[in-house]
Amino acid sequence: MARGEKTKYSAKQKRMAEHIEEGYEKRGASAKKAARIAWATVNKETGGAGKPVKNTAPSKKGGKKGAAAQSHAKRVAAGKKAARTRKQNEQHASH
């Protein structure tokens, strides 16, 4: 199989790559970069062309990072805790 050739991939793997690519393009990635990331993800999950699905963790990770993944209440609680900690540290530093 020549580099970049996709004929050995299953229909499911091709659909996966297409779906992942669309998601990256919606987020503003160029078509070339989106395709590269999509196929890298498919290869990581399935082990390459024509192999059964092994690891779906790379797909699950997307969109669940950072503060945006938390609820409003959790972000507010974290902010209040940080303010308390800063206040305590300020008191300890002044003594």
Describe the structure.
The chain is built from four helices and no strands. It is mainly α. It has two domains: about 5-60, no CATH class; about 65-95. Helix 1 (about 10-25) crosses helix 2 (about 30-45). The radius of gyration is 21 Å and the shape is elongated. The chain starts with 10 loop residues before the first helix and ends with a helix. The model has no long low-confidence stretch (mean pLDDT about 85).
Describe how the helices and strands are arranged.
Layout: H1 11-26, H2 31-46, H3 57-61, H4 72-94
Descriptive tags:
95 residues, mainly alpha, elongated
Number of helices: 4
Strand content: under 5%
- Count of all domains: 2
According to DSSP, the number of beta strands is: 0
- Helix proportion: 55-70%
The Rg value, from CA coordinates, equals: 21 Å
Alpha carbon gap, first and last residue:
70 Å
The SSE string, one letter per element, is HHHH
Average pLDDT value? 83
Low-pLDDT ranges: none
Biggest sheet statistics: none
Q: How would you sum up the global shape?
A: elongated
Structural class: mainly alpha
Task: Compose a concise summary of this entry.
The chain folds into two domains: 7-62, no CATH class; 66-95.
